[in-house]
Amino acid sequence: MLAPLKNDPKYGIITAPGESTSALHFNVTKGVPFDDKRFRQAVAYAVDRNDMVKRILLGDGEPGFMGNVAASSPWAAPDLPAYNCDVAKAKAMLDEIGLKDANGDGVRDLPTGEAFAPELLITAASAKPAELIKEYLRDVGINLQIKSVDAAASDSAVTESRFEMALVGYGALGSDPDWLRQRLSSKVPSKSFLRIQGWNNPSFEEAAAKQLVTIDPAERLKLVHQMQRAVAEDVPVMALYLSTRTAIFDKTVFGDWYYTPQGVFGLYPHFLNKHALATGKIAGV
Length: 285
Prior knowledge:
By secondary structure, the chain is an alpha/beta fold. 33% of the residues lie in helices and 15% in strands. The protein has one domain: Dipeptide-binding Protein, domain 3 (Roll), CATH 3.10.105. The protein has ten helices and eight strands. α2 runs antiparallel to α4. The longest helix is centred in the C-terminal third of the chain and has 18 residues, at 217-234.
């Protein structure tokens, strides 16, 4: 779609790193094995996020960042584990927690010997990433069951903790990092389909509470990094991929559009920046 516009001198194109994602949520309240971080880590190693970028975004994006913020954010923590796809490692970790093939049918069972067929809740919009996740998990011996419902039913089920794993779409990964606290902290009383169910990490909670009232930017950055390290270690949620943002405009009318850094929820004012509209100049970058 962009090819003919790139060759037309009338049009300009601006891009920016993505800030919206399709994320895999784990419901920690569902017990074994969802409450074991080694299971969640194994799933992270099994899911090939680089492959998803190629097959779903046609390369126009990037894998999700394990701190659950945008990798392009100035708040992104350095040196987090990447969980690059490693099928052998995923299999070894699943063996370690007792998820093995008990009856020789090629599919892993629970430590009790019962069949293990975890359910992934999705909407129709998430059908393609869900099928890829099913494919990746099949390669490590997990028989994933996909349950597709409408958006309202999905939001309700995730909000009310009636799921095991779910694909949830949202933005704001490039906005103020308190958004991370609002979605992941067990201390936040509000209910939302964006919330993580059942996860309570003391290191995360301590840093989340302190960053909310810390005035010094450097100190707050350290606390936000601590929050992300806890998320990357425990993997209660995994951002799968972020698509590159793209806007096309008529340069003969105005040519100095720009994406607003850290806009509200990463979306507003987007590239419709009041300063650009009023002055016709690039600023704020």
